[in-house]
Design goal:
single chain; 579 residues; alpha+beta; Jelly Rolls; 2 domains; globular; signal; 6-hairpin_glycosidase_sf
Length: 579
């Protein structure tokens, strides 16, 4: 008997040697597509609201094990007996990109699945809204849907960007037992190598929220928003990539997204159909090379870059831009054709001068010369800014308008009024160029801080300082007599609840504080030379870190009793600091 068993074992093993019979070890290598994203479970922080027969709701605030069990003593019971469903609204504490997972218990027979309605919201108002009301939509990500939940099991929804989730039991004369409800938060598990801390806690929070806003949008690609649009918009990428450089350092999501924009926009097309967005692509390529110095990657862009630069110069006639496609700076300025022309004139110069530098690095002297000559011809013609903060900021940044005059005549008028979340970054940059660092921080605290005062945990697609008047917080049910900011405002493509409350282009203050208060800026190609020039305004101290290709720069600035700034800096070997 023993001999026969041995024979069977040897015979089975021998099958491994026969032609045409593959084993696990002998299989050819399979292509495995691994996600760069991490999944983390987040439980509700509070119960915002409930209606109907809901028993034991506080149980949902407890961290669970993610597993259904036969012990049914720790469940939340929702029972619908009339027309109004049993409902509950959960707050998960902060904006996230993710899905909802529901773990269920054992409700009385029949053991059929129960039908529930899920509504996600970036605000309480959005989570409570009916689909189609006040712009509430399922565009790009499904955030209002019915879901079948199993008896004694678990189920997951699709992903969206949200903080709040409402659950309604739709089955009448039935009950559902909820053991756990949690968010499966999806994000890149990467360290915050950059940091910022100063004597003003409001500025500290603004820096952190800007960094977190971009972090959430670093999904498979670098999106503009995690609810809407979940797309790679190249204009949005410029503030986002600048934030990535300041906070995370090199990350593959940036070149991956830049390449997507290039590959899906064969010339003579404009990226996203917008001429300035193709210009932003050139500017981003320059800044990316300044920080990381990856020549092999830059060489991959050479053919497309050459064609794009020739296309841009071909749209300049007698020194005046004549760009076709969608002529766009940002949404608040989109009806001001005079300001748009001024902005396009400045953007064309900026992109051509960056293109000239990149072409020189790539050994393309002819294209570099063409870019420089076209930009020089354009500088002779300065279009009117029409009192647009967007246009004045761009004209100032490229040196076509005196920085002090841009500030006194346009940027300072009305304070934060007519700022925008996207171009607000360039308005702050123009204020810095005029030496108005304290004033820029004051604007930042008023404008971006206004979103925080309304309960934001990420920065929005758009914001108007006038919205603050009589506004309810976004993390509460709207009290009688108060304005529902999410439902009442918005414009263009972001009316009401369609308005994205997590938009990466709003992260400019994070970059600005690292560059102008900490004072660190890459000033030579390759990311090895940084200028250190802090501007504390009325801050008592500022300290933080900045990522480079060779490690982290650490810096601290403290005002002494006479108001003099005393600086200490530690830089990695190979990093040169200019002071």
């Amino acid at each position: 008997m023993k001999r026969r068993v041995l024979f069977l074992v040897l015979g089975l093993c021998g099958l491994c040697l026969l032609p045409g019979i593959a084993t696990a070890q002998a299989r050819p290598a399979e292509r495995k597509l691994k996600s760069p994203l991490t999944r983390e479970y987040v439980y509700p922080a509070r119960i915002v609201w409930q209606q109907g027969q809901v028993k034991g709701a506080e149980q949902l605030l407890k961290e669970g094990i993610g597993q259904a069990s036969l012990n049914n003593s720790d469940v939340v019971v929702l029972k619908t007996t009339g027309k109004a469903p049993a409902s509950i609204l959960l707050d998960f504490g902060r904006e996230m990109n993710g899905a909802l997972e529901i773990i269920t218990g054992m409700w009385p027979a029949p053991n059929n699945p129960r039908k529930v309605r899920i509504r996600f919201g970036e605000s309480v108002s959005e989570a409570m809204a009916e689909l189609g009301a006040h712009g509430s939509t399922n565009d790009h990500a499904i955030r209002d849907f019915n879901l079948m939940v199993p008896w004694l099991g678990k189920v997951q929804s699709g992903e969206s960007g949200f903080r709040f989730a409402r659950i309604d039991l739709l089955d009448v004369n039935a009950e559902v037992h909820l053991k756990e409800v949690r968010v499966i938060s999806t994000y890149r598990d990467i360290p915050y190598l950059g940091s910022f801390k100063c004597s003003n806690e409001r500025l500290n929070k603004i820096w952190n929220v800007g960094a977190y806003t971009v972090h959430l949008n670093m999904q498979d690609y670098l999106w503009d928003g995690i609810k809407r649009d979940r797309l790679v918009w190249v204009g949005d990428l410029h503030p986002e990539v600048s934030t990535v450089n300041s906070v995370f350092g090199y990350n593959e999501v940036v070149p991956k997204s830049l390449d997507l924009a290039r590959n899906t926009t064969p010339l003579p097309g404009w990226m996203s159909g917008i001429s300035t967005y193709s210009m932003w692509w050139i500017i981003i390529q320059h800044e990316w090379y300044m920080h990381h110095g990856n020549l092999s990657y830059l060489k991959e862009q050479k053919e497309y870059l050459q064609g794009l630069l020739k296309q841009i110069t071909g749209k300049v006639v007698n020194g005046v831009e004549k760009m076709d496609g969608n002529r766009f700076l940002d949404w608040p300025s989109s009806k001001d054709t005079v300001a748009i022309h001024a902005g396009l004139q400045a953007m064309t110069i900026w992109s051509l001068e960056c293109g000239a530098k990149l072409s020189a690095i790539l050994g393309d002297a002819a294209t570099a010369k063409q870019c420089r000559e076209t930009a020089a011809e354009m500088r002779k013609i300065v279009p009117p800014h029409n009192n647009s903060k967007q246009a004045a900021a761009l004209l100032s940044l490229v040196g076509m308008m005196d920085a002090g005059k841009a500030y006194s005549d346009v940027l300072s008028v009305g304070g934060a009024k007519n700022f925008s979340t996207f171009y607000g970054y360039y308005m702050l940059e123009a204020m810095a160029k005029a030496g108005k660092y304290k004033e820029a921080m004051d604007i930042m605290m008023q404008y971006w801080g206004g979103m925080l005062d309304l309960g934001a945990t990420t920065f929005w697609e758009d914001f108007n300082i006038d919205w603050m008047k009589n506004a309810a917080r976004i993390d509460e049910l709207v009290p009688a007599g108060k304005v529902d900011v999410h439902a009442a405002y918005g414009d263009y493509c972001y009316v009401g609840h369609r308005h994205s409350f997590c938009h990466g282009w709003a992260s400019g203050p994070t970059v600005w504080l690292s560059e102008h208060v900490l004072g660190l800026k890459a000033v030579a190609p390759g990311g090895k030379v940084f200028r250190l020039k802090p501007h504390l305004g009325d801050l008592a101290f500022a300290e933080g870190t900045f990522p480079t290709k060779l490690g982290v720069i650490r810096v601290k600035h403290v005002k002494d009793k006479k108001g003099k700034v005393v600086t200490t800096v530690q830089a990695p070997k190979g990093i040169r600091i200019l002071r």
